[in-house]
Each structure stands twice: as C-alpha cells, then as structure tokens.
Amino acid sequence: MERAATVQTHCHQHAVMKTDADRELMRRAGIDAEVLDEGCCGMAGNFGFEKDHYELSMTVAEQGVLPAVRETADEALVIADGFSCRTQIEQGDTDRRALHLAEALARGLDGPAHGDSGGTDGTATRHTPSARALVTGAAGVATAVAALGAAYAAVRYGARRRRR
Asked: Membrane-crossing residues (predicted)?
C-alpha cells in the first residue's frame, strides 16, 4: 500500500487490547502509521453527543486529536477504528473522513472499492455492496445456518437415543 497514516486508537482498545497487533498489521500492509498519543478524542461513546457535554467534548478533542488530524498531509490516510472517534474527527472541522483500519486494508488489497472516489484524503464514501453481493451473502449465511441446525439436531437426536 505504501501510504502514510495518522491513527487515532479508540480509548477502549488502548486500555484493554493495546495496539501491537494493529501496528504490525499496518506495517505489513505498508502503512507508515503515526499512532497518536494524544489521548481521548473527546467523544467517549455517547458522552459528546449529549447536549450538556458538547463543549467539554470539543475542548478535549482540541487538546490533541483534532489538531493532529488537521496537520496530517493531504495524501495520508486518517484511521480511527472507533465509531465515536471517526465521528468526532469528521465533525470537528478537520475536513477529513477517518477510515476504519479494515477499510484502509481493503483499499490496499484491490484499490478503491466500487463507488469509492479513491481520493487520497480519506474522504471517499463507504462501499455499498451490490444487490447481487447481498443475495449471495445471504444465501451463504442461510446455508451455514441450515448446516448448523442440522448438526445440532443430529447431536440432540444422538444424545436422546443414548439416554433410552
């Protein structure tokens, strides 16, 4: 992929899972990641969405995350896995749209997705699957559910026969 990226780690991930796996994945994908150490984006789940907390939420974001995103080069990606982090970045006067790491990796696998503007600034629209893809996926899920149901029934039937 050979692309620079500014990365905001979601607070929950930072506290519980850390970022080692994501850093290694980005390294292998050719993403030169600058993982921010700027703290919380300020949204904190639904906290920043609440009317009484908006100003505090933006104050926290302006202490690190939003200025760092604004300083990110236009050709670099902005990556944030947390929905609240992406929302804060998009609505915080950055003129950027943060991608989930999975979206960035998908772009690297086969280029911009169908319906993706392919812009270098991370402002591309999210991919919307075609009706055919949805039907094919639904059929696959239905088949898997039916197979699991049949296996479950066979196990229960075998257990009942053993009890008799």
From this structure: 133-155
pLDDT above 90 covers a percentage of the chain that reads: 45
Q: Name the token pair of 128.
A: 């919307």
Of 131, 8, 149, which Cα lies nearest the Cα of 68?
8
**pLDDT for the residue 117:** 47
Whole-number Å distance between alpha carbons of 92 and 65: 10
Residues 4, 86: Cα–Cα separation, whole Å: 18
| Overall pTM > 0.85 | no
How many residues in total does the chain contain? 164
| CA distances from residue 75 to 5, 96, 113, 119, 159 in whole angstroms, order as listed | 9, 11, 18, 9, 61
Say how many C-beta atoms besides its own lie within 10 A of residue 25's C-beta: 16
* CB neighbourhood size of 5 (10 A): 23
pLDDT digits (tens, 9 = 90+) for 76-123: 999 999 999 999 999 999 999 999 999 999 988 866 544 444 454 454
- Given a contact cutoff of 8 angstroms between Cβ atoms, the answer to whether 55 and 101 are in contact is no
d(CA 62, CA 86): 15
CATH of domain 3-110: 3.40.50
- What letter does residue 27 receive in the DSSP assignment? H
